[in-house]
Structures are given as structure tokens and as C-alpha cells.
Write a structure and sequence with these properties.
The chain contains 9 helices and 2 strands. The protein has helices at about 5-35, 40-50, 60-95, 100-130, 145-160, 165-175, 180-185, 185-200, 205-230, and strands at about 55, 145. It has a two-stranded parallel sheet with strand order 1-2. Helix 4 (about 100-130) runs antiparallel to helix 5 (about 145-160). The longest helix is centred in the first third of the chain and has 34 residues, at about 60-95. It is flat and about 65 Å long. The chain starts with a helix and ends in a 5-residue tail after the last helix. The mean pLDDT is about 85.
Amino acid sequence: MEPESLYSSILKLLLYLRRFILETVIGLACLVFGLYWLAPDILDLLQYHLGQKLAFFGVMEPIVSLLKLSTATALALMAPWIFFRLSQGLIALFGITKKFAMLFSLTALMLFYGGAAFCFFITLPFGVNFLLSYQSQNLTAVISLGKFVDFVVFFLLGFGLIFELPLIMSLVCKLGICHPATFARQRRYAILIIAILAAVLTPTPDVLNMSLMAVPLYLLYEAGIIIGRLFVPTS
């Protein structure tokens, strides 16, 4: 690529990112303002699902926690628009087809919500029950509202993003940045990284909870290799 063409592409990317970030911030602020009044109901749902009673230890803790919860909810609700705008950026910057861009946004949306749902219904209940299993007659847990919201939001959004792995792998293969055979050759390192991620991101260090994340991630990695091969022409 010639220097002028490279400079033009970088400038175009920066302008698109500036507009995307500005639109995202404005939309997020409006949604957070509206969702703040529903945040107590969302918190009640989380408490009921995970079976926890909460307490707060500061004057501002309930307000800050509800703001965090409404922000996370707003991001989840904005996911369709965010992925759509990202797909439009791929069309503008890399010249991919509109069909692939639509497939990209729909797949990203399904993976994001699928990862969050997997965490909500499987990983979080297992993790919370395990962590609170250390209670006894002389040792009772008092869970902070702020820590509870941080804990739940981190894992729900984290799982949603991590489940985008096969889509990212397919995209870099589509753009010619990497070849599926490279991912296949680096499988042993991928397994190591997945194991480390599972150990760091799962709520508890026990093998069962780590497996609940590591096994789906490895399957997604293999799916990324298989799907990536569909975008590479055979010789």
C-alpha cells in the first residue's frame, strides 16, 4: 500500500471511530438516564435469581451501584446497534460485502447474548453457591451491594465478549490477516491461554466452574478454525 493510500485509510478509520464513539456515548447517556429508574427492579431480579440478600455500607453506594447496573443494562440493550455500526465500518474500511456485514452483526449479537445467558443461568449460580458454601453458624456472609453489582456485571459482560472468539477468528481470516492453519498449529497455546482465562475469569477456582468456561471456549476456538476455512479459497 502506498503512503498516501495508507494515510487516507488511517484518517478514514479515525474519523469513523470518532463518530462511532460520539454516537455511542450520547446513546448510552440517554439510555442510562431512562434505565436508572428501572435499575431497582433489575437488581431485585438478580437478587432473586442468585438468592442473595444485600447490604450497603456507604451513603452513595446504592446510587453508584444502580448507575453501574443501568449502564451495563444500557450496553446490553445497545448491542444490536453497536454491532450494526461495526459491520458498517467493515464495509467502509475493508470493502467487505453487505451480506457478510449483516451476517457479522447477527452472529456477533447471538454470541454476545448467548455468552451472557450462559453466565447468568449456569456459571454465576454455581460460582455464588460455591463461594458462599463457607458459611457456618459462626460465620455469616454480609454481601455489599456495590461488590455484588460489580461482580455480576463483570461476569455477564465478560462472558458476552469472550464468546465472540469464533467471530473474531473468522473475521481475521476473511480479511487475510491470519490463516486458519495458523490457528490450528497454535492450538496448544490456545488451550493454555483458555485455561488461564478460565482460572482468572470464573468466580471460583474449582475445576467444575473452570470447566464450565474452558470447555465452551475451546469449542468456540475450534468453531472459529472451521468457519475461518470457509473464507479461505482452496488452492
